[in-house]
Structure formats: structure tokens, C-alpha cells
Specification:
407 residues, Nucleotidyltransferase, domain 5, six-stranded mixed β-sheet, 15 helices, 38% helix, binds adenosine-5'-diphosphate
């Protein structure tokens, strides 16, 4: 029975792969139940200390320390392990779903991979130079090895509904058109996934569901969702804009870039590195690990407190702006490593917001089991608050089926 979907997420230096079984057996049936059969995580590709950790249903989790010089080497190892375990074989493989970071202005939905869509992904390399090439490597490898249908699910697609007044920058139109300079937004699959799960749990139709989703991981972004559609998000032309992140600066006065060039003599590449990899939480206090930062805050470490508070301040600024855009907000949803797991950050973000109808239940917030989905608002809160684990890979599997069966 062809009932397995492989999801591949090739990052700039990582490969994630998840194998799903469609429980009802026949993919043409409605109401598929999904079971995850295997999960692979390869890290530090083309760097020192690369490794692959994986778990396969019914077996213990394993870690293999192996040098992966390229994405292809990591994918080959993963697919060999699938073969050895008799998974995703010719009798069971149905399709492959790929996370693709950038689809530019041309792609608004998940698409079947063919020459035309592959060309668009190639054309968008200039917008996502670290990610789209990695995504293409995964697509080519799977095309050669498996020859089944492949679907691309794009980080930018969910935000294609953002209106022009929200995606436009105040710069000359001639440059906008020449270089397609606009806000695109990212993390779309995660924002959409957590919002859909919460709408479902609240027994609401997604098309009349409005929420503010906070994806707070190493990369972080906020999204305003009105009637099931993204109408605004904090990341922009690149993932550098918006919230303060683990190592990215987020919103910054562009004049600071001139200063770095003129006074520090930094090149474009050096500024790129500084703002993407050495800024944000790390720039302020030397660490981009929120667990470490919160621990240091307990010991009154001033720079850690500044990093934490600046991170929270920026989130609250966006939250206020987005509440203005969606006055009938049903829910605020925290996700990502920090959003799912840090009760302290959720508490600080929601502090004294009862005038906006946002009332966190401190007991529920503190006692929520790690990794569980949970409503953490007071009964009186008109905006419900949730901590909801994200699952981008499951969402990609679901969208892959939708595209192929045209559901
Ligand atoms: P990525 O964007 O790389 O996928 P994650 O979503 O895994 O990142 O989030 C990583 C962040 O989550 C790190 O800052 C980490 O410290 C933080 N984090 C994970 N668990 C906790 C926790 N229990 N409390 C606070 N922060 C946490």
C-alpha cells in the first residue's frame, strides 16, 4: 500500500527528515490520521562536529557522529537508513514534501515540483541565498533516488495574503519593481499550523478565526491572522526584520548600517554577518540560549536582564500593533522553543494587558507540562492564550497530500 510520505526540510546547515504513515491506508480517503514513523535530524553540515540523530518507531533513539561535507551526504545517509529499515520502499512510498523557504511573489500556495516551479525556486535564490539552494539539493536528490511526486511547501506562501499597505516599504517604486523589494514574511507554515490546531481545539471554523501567533525560537516572528489569513507579520524582505532574535538584530535604524560602514570600515559581508549571527540576544549578553539567559537573570546578571527585557519589549510592541489590526482577536498563541517552553517569557509578554482583554492564568502558565498544548488564559480573558507546540513537518505532509489529491 502506497501510504508513506517523506518530508524533507533542508536548512542552511541542517537536514530534517520525517516519515509519515497515512493511517487510513488509502490516501484518497478523507480524514487521514497521521503517524510519524521516523524522525532524522542532521546538524552542522559542512562544519566540524556534524552528526545525525534519529528515532524510528519501536527502536531506541540513536546518534551517529559522522562528517557530512554536503547536504547530499546527509540525505544519502538518511535514505540508506530508511532502506535498511524497509521504510519508504517502492511498495509504500507515495510522495515527498519539501520545505522551501522562498517562493517570491509568484508562489502563493504549495505546488507540485515540476520544471516550472523548480525554475521559480531557482529564481528566488537571490532572496534566500542560504536556504533555497539547500532546498533544491534535496529536491534533486529525491528526484533521482525515488522518482515519486514531490511538492514544495513555502515559508512565504501563507503571508501572500498580506495587503499592499502592510508589505510595502517607503522607498521609490522604481527600485521596488526592479528588485521586488517588499515584505515577504517567513515561518508561514508554523504560524498557519498552530493557528489551525487552536481553531480546531476551540471548535471554530478556521476561516472565521483570528489570532496573533508568536513563533519564538532562535529565529522569531509574530503574525496577525484575520479570518484564517495572514494580514501582517514581523519578518520582512528577509528574516532579519522584526523581533529581536537569538543572533539577528531585528528592527534597526538603517542609518546604523551607514555608521558601521563609515566609522568601523566594515564590508557588506561583515555587516551581514554581524547583524545575522552576532546580534540580537547574543549581541547584548553573549548568549543566544534563552535557558541560559533566564538562569543568569536569576543571578541578577545585568546584561542577561537587558537581553531578556529587550526581547520581551519588542514582542509586546508588535502585539499591541497587531491587536489594533484585529480587534476581535480570538487567541494569542505561543510556539517555538521559547514560546512553547518558557513560562517566564510568556508571563512577561502578557503582563498587565487586561485592558486589551488579555489575562494570563499564572498557575496554568506555570504548571503546563513541557511540550503539551494547553490553554493558559483566565476564564475572564476575552482573548484566549495558548502554548501550542508547532509541527511544520506534519503540516508539510498534510499540504503535500492536499496538492496531489487536489483536495
Ligand atoms: P530554532 O529556531 O533553531 O528551531 P527552537 O525553536 O528550537 O529554535 O528554539 C530554541 C530556543 O528555545 C533557545 O533559545 C532555547 O534556549 C529555547 N528554549 C528551549 N527550551 C526552553 C525552556 N525550557 N525555557 C526557556 N527557553 C527554552
Amino acid at each position: 500500500m502506497k501510504n508513506q510520505i517523506l518530508v524533507l526540510n533542508c536548512g542552511s546547515s541542517s537536514v530534517k527528515a520525517d516519515l509519515f504513515l497515512m493511517e487510513n491506508g488509502d490516501p484518497h480517503e478523507k480524514n487521514i490520521d497521521w503517524q510519524r514513523l521516523a524522525k532524522f535530524r542532521a546538524e552542522r553540515i559542512s562544519k566540524n562536529g556534524s552528526k545525525l540523530s534519529f528515532s524510528i518507531t519501536g527502536k531506541d533513539k540513536q546518534v551517529i557522529e559522522q562528517e557530512f561535507k554536503t547536504h547530499e551526504e546527509a540525505i544519502e545517509k538518511i535514505t540508506n537508513l530508511l532502506d535498511e529499515n524497509l521504510l519508504f520502499n517502492p511498495e509504500t512510498r507515495f510522495a515527498i514534501g519539501h520545505r522551501v523557504v522562498h517562493g517570491g511573489e509568484k508562489i502563493n500556495n504549495p505546488v507540485k515540483i515540476d520544471d516550472q516551479s523548480q525554475k521559480i525556486i531557482e529564481d528566488c535564490i537571490e532572496f534566500a541565498p542560504l536556504h533555497n539552494p539547500a532546498n533544491l539539493k534535496g529536491i534533486s536528490f529525491c528526484k533521482n533516488k525515488y522518482g515519486v511526486d514531490q511538492v514544495g511547501v513555502f515559508d512565504t506562501a501563507f503571508h501572500s495574503t498580506i495587503p499592499a499597505e502592510a508589505y510595502s516599504y517607503g522607498i521609490p517604486q522604481q527600485l521596488v519593481q526592479k528588485y521586488q523589494i517588499r515584505r515577504y514574511g517567513f515561518h508561514g507554515t508554523s504560524h498557519e499550523y498552530v493557528a489551525q490546531v487552536v481553531a480546531h481545539n476551540l471548535d471554530m471554523d478556521f476561516h472565521s478565526f483570528s489570532a496573533i501567533t508568536l513563533h519564538l525560537g532562535n529565529g522569531a516572528s509574530v503574525c496577525a491572522i484575520k479570518d484564517g489569513k495572514s494580514i501582517e507579520t514581523s519578518m520582512g524582505y528577509t528574516p532579519l526584520e522584526g523581533l529581536m532574535m537569538g543572533t539577528r538584530c531585528g528592527d534597526l535604524d538603517p542609518a546604523i548600517v551607514f555608521l558601521l560602514q563609515e566609522k568601523e570600515g566594515l564590508s557588506t559581508d561583515e555587516i551581514d554577518l554581524l547583524l545575522n549571527k552576532q546580534s540580537g540576544l547574543k549581541g547584548i549578553c553573549g548568549s543566544n540560549d534563552m535557558r541560559d539567559i533566564l538562569q543568569r537573570c536569576e543571578n541578577n546578571d545585568k546584561l542577561a536582564i537587558l537581553a531578556r527585557d529587550a526581547f520581551v519589549h519588542r514582542i509586546r510592541r508588535y502585539l499591541g500593533a497587531y491587536v489594533a489590526e484585529i480587534p476581535n482577536c480570538n487567541a494569542i498563541i505561543f510556539t517555538g522553543g521559547i514560546g512553547e517552553n518558557s513560562a517566564k517569557i510568556r508571563e512577561l509578554v502578557c503582563k498587565d494587558l487586561s485592558h486589551l482583554g488579555i489575562n494570563l492564568d499564572l498557575d496554568k502558565n506555570n504548571t503546563r507540562p513541557l511540550g503539551a498544548d494547553f490553554q493558559i488564559s483566565q476564564k475572564s480573558s476575552s482573548v484566549k492564550i495558548f502554548a501550542q507546540p508547532t509541527d511544520e513537518e506534519l503540516m508539510i505532509a498534510q499540504k503535500t497530500i492536499e496538492v496531489l489529491l487536489n483536495k
